[in-house]
Amino acid sequence: MTPDAPFEEPWQARAFAMTVRLHEAGHFTWPVWSEHLGRALRAEPDRPYWESWLAALEELTAGSGLADAADLDDRQEAWRRAHAETPHGQPARLPDQ
Amino acid sequence: MHDHGPDALELRVQALESLLVERGYVDPEAMDRLIETYEHEVGPHNGAQVVARAWTDPDYRARLLADGSAAIAELGFTGRQGEHMVVVENTADVHNLVVCTLCSCYPWPVLGLPPVWYKAPPYRARAVIEPRAVLGEFGMEVGEDVEVRVWDSTAEIRYLVLPERPAGTEGLSAEVLAGLVTRDAMIGTAKAAAP
């Protein structure tokens, strides 16, 4: 990565892009997003920026009914299993996909 | 095998994205295109063209200071986070500095995404309270006779600094001048580079 690259890890770029696309699809205004992000940054000032970004996005998507916390937990567990059962070097897939 | 698997953050993002895609809320290919745009296309080289044009075209400079968004759009730089741009001009008497105290509001069409320090708590907290000390840490000496103005970007208004044109650049083309305009000069934590 170059010193001024906007993202240090691919997941940061995915979280960023999800946020912008949800906003553009009308699920929330940008001031509402800023408010959530600002709150997440203030809540844990020492947490890395993109982790606060992700926490804010999870809170906002849960709060607006797009993906609630229980669904997220289930989905994370499904991915964890999928990764564990996939041989190294192959892409993990969820069983029902 | 688990040591090759994703970490907790990657799993959270993968879980969220796969749910949102499945439910039709986001399109992964549109996300790919968006990421490509901000990794490779949009960046401070856009803002540098705006500044160089303002330095070489007094009418454009006047339009830029009167209505930043419209003048920036003349050069084709539009879109996300550039809807309400205000351009503030550095002079011999005034130095401008931009921050977002709430989070990380930033003029994406002209500067791309913000650098790490711009988003970090120390800069966000201190730029307003002790701007001269912050500028000093960036290696900028601002004389006591120069007024420092700090602008707090928000989700609605985003600021761009029009730096002073460096001495000894008379006769340089806008293209060459743009090469002297750094990202930090347009945030206000640096001056434009000498030729």
SS elements, strand count of chain A: 0
Overall body shape of chain A: globular
Count of domain modules of chain B: 2
The greatest inter-chain interface is formed by:
A-B, 50 and 45 residues
In this structure, how is the largest beta sheet of chain A organized? none
Provide the structure class of chain B. Answer: mainly alpha
Q: Largest sheet of chain B at a glance? A: 2 strands, parallel
Approximately how much beta-strand content do the residues of chain A carry?
Answer: under 5%
Stretches of chain A where pLDDT is under 50 for at least 5 consecutive residues are none
Which shape of chain B, going by the Cα principal axes? globular
Uncertain ranges of chain B: none
Rg of chain B, please? 19 Å
Give the ordered list of helices and strands of chain A: HHHH
User: At the first level of CATH, what is the class of the largest domain in chain B?
Assistant: Alpha Beta
* Main sheet: strand order of chain B: 1-4
Between the first and last Cα atoms of chain A, what is the distance in angstroms?
A: 33 Å
CATH superfamily of the largest domain in chain B: Nitrile hydratase alpha /Thiocyanate hydrolase gamma
**Quaternary structure annotation:** heterodimer
Average pLDDT score of chain A: 91
Domains of chain A, number: 1
Strand percent estimate of chain B: 5-15%
Q: If you had to describe this structure to a student in words, what would you say it looks like?
A:
The complex is a heterodimer of chains A (97) and B (195). Chain A has four helices and no strands. The N and C termini of chain A lie far apart (33 Å). Chain A is an all-alpha fold. Helices cover 63% and strands 0% of the residues of chain A. Chain A has one domain. In chain A, helix 1 runs parallel beside helix 3 (49-63). Chain B has two domains: 2-40, no CATH class; 43-187, Nitrile Hydratase, Chain A (Alpha-Beta Complex). Chain B is built from eleven helices and four strands; from the N terminus they run αααααββααααββαα. In chain B, strands 1-4 form a two-stranded parallel sheet. Classes of the chains: A mainly alpha (97), B mainly alpha (195).
